Automatic annotation (TrEMBL):
<dbReference type="InterPro" id="IPR051236">
    <property type="entry name" value="HAT_RTT109-like"/>
</dbReference>
<dbReference type="InterPro" id="IPR017946">
    <property type="entry name" value="PLC-like_Pdiesterase_TIM-brl"/>
</dbReference>
<dbReference type="InterPro" id="IPR006311">
    <property type="entry name" value="TAT_signal"/>
</dbReference>
<dbReference type="Pfam" id="PF13653">
    <property type="entry name" value="GDPD_2"/>
</dbReference>
<feature type="signal peptide">
    <location>
        <begin position="1"/>
        <end position="30"/>
    </location>
</feature>
<keyword id="KW-0732">Signal</keyword>
<protein>
    <recommendedName>
        <fullName>Altered inheritance of mitochondria protein 6</fullName>
    </recommendedName>
</protein>
<dbReference type="InterPro" id="IPR039559">
    <property type="entry name" value="AIM6_PI-PLC-like_dom"/>
</dbReference>
C-alpha cells in the first residue's frame, strides 16, 4: 500500500521534482544505464566525507546535503563557522562538479536514469540574503537545475531544495521564476503552499517519535507516521526525517525498514556504505 501511495505522489508532482528528466529513448534504455541509483538514500552532512559529492555518487545516493554559510558573496560549506575554508565553496564542491557530470552523462546525474538528483542546501546564516546569493549562483547553470517559472515546474538533472534558516522562504515565494524549492516542516503539512514551492517535508525524528528501533514499533506511532506520509504524498510532496538512529545494527535496520514500509522517501545517514548495503537488500519503489 505504501508503494502505491508513493507512486501516486510521483505522478502527482509529474515529471518535475520527484520524477522524470526526459531523456532520449536511446539513453533511457536498460543497456545504456549505469548502476541503479538508490533514490531513497540521503547523504546527511555530505561535505564531511573525504570526497564531498563524489563519495555519495559512488554509493549511488539520490540526495546529498551541504550546509552553507554566506561569507561576503561566497557560500562556504561546513557544519560550524569554525570549520569554514575559503576554498570549500558550494560552487567548487557541488555546482561545478554536478555540471561536469551531467554534461558527461548527456543530461543526467546518473547515466540513463531519468530522475533528478536532489541537492539539499542547508543555510546556516540568515536565510533571505543567503538564498538570494544561492539564486544568483544557480542561475549560472541554466540547464542544470529544475526550474519553477510562472506556475509551472520544468525538470532538470538536479533539483535544489533549500533547508535551514526559515527566512529563505520569503524571497522564494516572491519569485515568479526560481531554480530552487523549499524544504518544509511538519507544520507546513496540509498548508496552502503547493508542492511546486514545498516538494519536501523534513523534520526531527526524535521530536516527533519515541521509537529508536529497539523492540516493537508502537502502533500509535506507526499510524502517525503513515498519516504523515499519506498526507504528504496526496499533495505530491516527499518526506524525510533527520536525527534518526545512525549506529549500525539491528535497531537501525528495524527503523529503516519501518520508514520504507510507511513510504518515507529519504533515509538520512552519514554511513554511505551502510545505507547502500541496506537498500540493496531492501529495495523500495
Amino acid at each position: 500500500m505504501a508503494l502505491t501511495t508513493r507512486r501516486r505522489a510521483l505522478t502527482t508532482l509529474g515529471a518535475a521534482l520527484a520524477g522524470t528528466l526526459a531523456l532520449p529513448a536511446s539513453r533511457a534504455s536498460a543497456g545504456d544505464r549505469g548502476p541503479r541509483p538508490l533514490w531513497h538514500a540521503h547523504a546527511h552532512n555530505d561535505y564531511a566525507h573525504p570526497r564531498p559529492l563524489y563519495d555519495a555518487l559512488d554509493h549511488r545516493f539520490g540526495s546529498v546535503e551541504a550546509d552553507v554559510f554566506l561569507v561576503g558573496d561566497q557560500l562556504l560549506v561546513g557544519h560550524e563557522a569554525s570549520d569554514l575554508d575559503p576554498s570549500r565553496t558550494l560552487e567548487s564542491l557541488y555546482l561545478e562538479p554536478l555540471a561536469a557530470r551531467v554534461r558527461a552523462h548527456h543530461g543526467a546525474a546518473y547515466r540513463g536514469w531519468r530522475r533528478p538528483l536532489q541537492l539539499l542546501v542547508d543555510i546556516k546564516t540568515e536565510g533571505s540574503s543567503a538564498y538570494l546569493e544561492l539564486d544568483r549562483q544557480l542561475r549560472r547553470y541554466p540547464h542544470l537545475f529544475t526550474r519553477y517559472a510562472h506556475g509551472r515546474v520544468h525538470p532538470g538533472p538536479v533539483t535544489a531544495v533549500v533547508s535551514g534558516d526559515r527566512a529563505a522562504r520569503t524571497p522564494m515565494e516572491a519569485q515568479t521564476e526560481r531554480r530552487a524549492f523549499y524544504d518544509g516542516r511538519l507544520s507546513d503539512l496540509g498548508g496552502s503552499a503547493p508542492a511546486s514551492l514545498i516538494p519536501l517535508i523534513s523534520d526531527n525524528w526524535t521530536q516527533n517519535f519515541t521509537w529508536s528501533g529497539v523492540g516493537a514499533f508502537p502502533d500509535a506511532e506507526r499510524h502517525k507516521l503513515r498519516g504523515i506520509t499519506g498526507a504528504a504524498h496526496a499533495r505530491g510532496q516527499q518526506v524525510r526525517f533527520w536525527a534518526t538512529p545512525d549506529t549500525a545494527g539491528p535497531a537501525r535496520d528495524a527503523l529503516w525498514t519501518e520508514l520504507l514500509d510507511a513510504g518515507v522517501d529519504y533515509l538520512n545517514t552519514d554511513d554511505l556504505a551502510g545505507l547502500e548495503a541496506f537498500l540493496d537488500v531492501h529495495p523500495a519503489g
